[in-house]
Amino acid sequence: MKRQLPPGQFETEKWPILHTGDVPEFNEITWNFRLFGEVKQERSLSYKEIMELPKTISTVNMHCVTTWSKFDTTFEGIALRELMKLVEMNEGVKYIKIFGYYNRERFGYSANLPLEPLLGDDSLFVYRWKDKNHDWHDIDLKHGYPLRFIPPEEFYLWKGTKWVSGIKFMKADEAGFWEERGYSMTANPYKEERYR
Ligand SMILES: Nc1nc2c(c(=O)[nH]1)N[C@H]1C(S)=C(S)[C@@H](COP(=O)(O)O)O[C@H]1N2
Ligand SMILES: [Mo]
Asked: Which of 156, 158, 177 to mutate to test the pocket of ligand 1 (most atoms within 8 A of CB)?
């Protein structure tokens, strides 16, 4: 895996914690994951149903817009393409918005992304990780347990929604939480697309 520091970034071996709002508690009984928007039929999956889906392991680099980059974290999770098999999308879907908790609001946080670059092994909804300093363990509640998205490294990490609650499939791009507040729609660290 390449190790190229994007412009304006520095490398860290630690995995910093960054978010806005409180850390939500996980309750398996009430937890569910919603697939909605431009689909023939909306679906809602329980925690058990999610965890029974095929797993993917992938090593990725993370770049936070606050300028830290962490290389080579290995994650276990469910690839976006596995979730896409569970719904029939309408014709012309080109974008998604990944929702998650902001305080008590289940859909309070969101980040928009184009669909096409997210079909590989590096687009995962993760729950377990390791790196050269840590053996396999569940991701911390503060990092988004029970499930959080990690985008490919062509996107800043704010596109990696923690405490995920659903995916909205869209024909047209729509700003998410930070994008509405002036951050980039495309957010490529190598092009230093921080703001718009
Ligand atoms: N639900 C939610 N997800 C979120 C955020 C947030 O505030 N709420 N912050 C984002 C930002 S700005 C970053 S940099 C990453 C940080 O992830 P980490 O704390 O696991 O490093 O989470 C992203 N996902
Ligand atoms: Mo961030």
From this structure: 158
Q: Does domain 35-147+161-187 have CATH number 3.90.420.10?
A: yes
% of the chain at pLDDT higher than 70: 99
Please give the model's pTM, rounded to 2 decimal places.
Answer: 0.98
Say how many Å lie between the CA of residue 24 and the centre of ligand 1.
13
Domain boundaries, the chain: 35-147+161-187
Q: Which residues contact 168 (CB under 8 A, 6 or more apart)?
A: 36, 37, 96, 97, 99, 110
Residue 2 has pLDDT above 80, yes or no: no
Ligand 1, atom 5: nearest CA belongs to which residue? 19
Measured CA distances, 82 to 56, 77, 110, 142, 179 (Å): 10, 10, 20, 25, 26
